[in-house]
Please model this.
Amino acid sequence: MEEVIRVKALTKKFGHLSVLRGIDCSIHASEVVCVIGPSGSGKSTFLRCLNGLEDASSGEVLVRGVSVHDSKTNLDTLRADIGMVFQRFNLFPHKTVLENIILAPTKVHGLTLAQARARASELLNKVDLLDKIDAYPNQLSGGQQQRAAISRALAMQPSIMLFDEPTSSLDPEMVGEVLVVMQALAEEGMTMVVVTHEMGFARQVADRVMFIDEGVVVEEGTPSELFDHPKEERTQRFLSKVL
Model:
């Protein structure tokens, strides 16, 4: 299977605080990797390093052979292929759902308004939000806003999707509607890296689960290996609290 992301000895420091301490891993095409671990363990920082939202202190991230943190790399071009969905939906509050979705495709990919609107309509229909195409974010529930944010990311037609705890800001009854959309993406073969606290989703959808604690990958494996037969004491201790 094609390797699309390669992480080599990635470290990240904020002042004297080492948040990532030498992470090595690979992500392959159409693979769904769920990243789990306690709060403050470096999961979100790791994800943000993958598309250059955070600079690496040392080490390297390669996306399809292109070094993310090389000063010569065009990050706008790189990010057009890497969609990202955040904890907070980050929709522009003064723009409608449609306007949020068509902004980047028209500016970056040069789509006409008609082309961008057609793509937006198709994506919103896919996430069951077509009837909200002219609504503003404050007229939507949290789950609807997150589904709109996923549609916005997909409008750029990325080959890789990063999700940073996409359900953590949602009321419990809204979590399922977002996870259903993400599961459908996985089934379509989208390459996905998902930082999540939803262990049921990780068990059901992930090809591989990475447990990160104190800035290192403590253990990784299939969902069955990690959840049912964790080898490391730190993994066992964490899972005993969340399962």
